[in-house]
């Protein structure tokens, strides 16, 4: 069980008003446009690594499967809409693979690896936390094992989406207000995540965008659309 | 469901069950068989998380898939948990440490290090009974609620202290609250121990076997070179000594206590036979020699003719290679080499020890015997080179 009691003075005021200034996205792009060997490059959408939770008075996160299911539906629909706008082929990776267990496990592990690499990228972008030995433009990769995905789907790229989104209960909001009055910053819900486009020949992450803000809502269609648009900022189409 | 009815149900498929073995237990299951949490509840959210974990566990390469062993252990879970058998899914996981886990949704994991350490069906039943106890008492959701309550308390106290100008004490109150939540989990472990013991005795197993596991684990811990720091305040489980004493005390008053026929040792070892070699190999890879020696000597104490154990005891000494270990290793290997059931690898190990001692003649003889018994061995070429050190490149 996780205890999450975050006290962050910088957010003391923001906690009350949820200033849009706190909203951050940062894009890292390596390719200006997708490889156009075919007129419409094919992208496979990996099973979404998305969890929605409620953060209670003391900061304990409660998983909310019904919210998560809605968010996954909205994100998928919005990505489909984006596909027709930007003109790439998008194929959804089947949630339940009909393959041997080793191959199924590889997919599980790649999704977890993406979460770990994405966190490393995010960490590396923080001020004073860059690993300078990686150079100005570090090349992040999921490794060549992604070829299995290419063989299976025939796609050129894979799109990985990782989102952890939490929402404050009324009790939490109350202590946030009380905290703000006492100049003790108490965090509320946070929308945090990232998306990566992975070249399935090399495993390299050719486009990456992160999201981290105390606003946003994936539980209903319209705000979810806004979140997905933000997540796909500068998507190389 | 009352206690008697529950135990009756729990024993429905226990072949060792006898009606006289019922006793007045105090803990009851806090759910009926087939229980599912309500759709919008927090418990459902918790289950959902573990259902996803379980989907992934099913595909894991660490899962031990031997169908016969899985069916056998599922059968033990059924004897112990009775009507709740269908609600528990036991997964055998390759990990060389003594552990088993229970998730709120009924996913139970038993690690290979635990299977290797159990010396009888009754001992494994005690582990499964303990884990089933966590499930039946709904400890997962209780722990979640406890975390919610205590962190809310910590937040409110922290704010209160800020108002009172005592913010610098917030760290202290938080530490006390965290200590209290560890105390909460230790109480859950005690409850699971008691419930597990009830279930095992009810299923017709010798309940004292539950205490015997802990006695052995204490011996293993004492054999560890790095004793580490034993934290009694921030510990998830009660200390082994307490668990052993409590379980033994409770078992004394139960039917079947200390009855060897209710342990199912031979059946257990027979079922483990195909997987055990890999468990030994994983144990050796830990390079934690003290506990491995304690474990293998304990196993030899139960059956001095278990050649697989004797070989691995020799291997630990050979790998540790301290002063005098060569003699201890050879003692095991030579004893085995004189029996017809010695595996070829015994000769290879004798060769290694003799070679390390500088006894080239004896080493070459032993290596020769190994290659004679196993001419197609993967390492034949390198062993051959050890036999002719002058010509090696």
Please provide the ordered H/E string of secondary-structure elements of chain B.
Answer: HHHEEEHHHHHHHHHHHHH
Please provide the count of β strands of chain B.
Answer: 3
Strand order of the largest sheet of chain B: 1-3-2
- The share of residues in extended strands of chain B comes to under 5%
For this structure, what is the CATH class of chain A? Alpha Beta
Helix content of chain B: 55-70%
Beta content of chain A comes to 15-25%
- Quickly count the helices of chain A: 6
CATH T-level topology of chain A: Rossmann fold
Comma- or semicolon-separated keywords:
heterodimer, A: 237 residues, alpha/beta, 8 strands, globular, disordered N terminus, B: 393 residues, mainly alpha, Serine Threonine Protein Phosphatase 5, Tetratricopeptide repeat, 2 domains, 16 helices, 3% strand
Account of the 3D structure:
Chain A contains 6 helices and 8 strands. Chain A is of the alpha/beta class and 237 residues long. Chain A has one domain (22-126, 137-169, 190-231): Rossmann fold (3-Layer(aba) Sandwich), CATH 3.40.50. In chain A, strands 1, 2, 3, 4, 5, 6, 7 and 8 form an 8-stranded mixed sheet that branches. Chain A is globular, with a radius of gyration of 19 Å. Chain A starts with 11 loop residues before the first helix and ends in a 6-residue tail after the last helix. Residues 1-23 of chain A have low confidence and may be disordered. By secondary structure, chain B is mostly helical. Chain B folds into 2 domains: 3-262, no CATH class; 268-391, Serine Threonine Protein Phosphatase 5, Tetratricopeptide repeat (Alpha Horseshoe). Chain B has helices at residues 3-10, 42-59, 67-81, 112-117, 121-136, 139-163, 170-202, 208-222, 240-252, 265-285, 289-302, 307-320, 325-337, 344-356, 360-373, 380-387, and strands at 89-93, 100-102, 107-111. Chain B has a 3-stranded mixed sheet, with helices on both faces. In chain B, strand 2 (100-102) and strand 3 (107-111) form a beta hairpin. The longest helix of chain B has 33 residues, at 170-202. Classes of the chains: A alpha/beta (237), B mainly alpha (393). The A-B interface holds A 1-5, 7, 56-60, 62-66, 68, 101-102, 104-105, 108, 171, 175, 178-179, 182, 184, 186 and B 39-40, 42, 44-46, 48-49, 56, 58-61, 143-144, 147-156, 158-159, 162-163, 167, 174, 178.
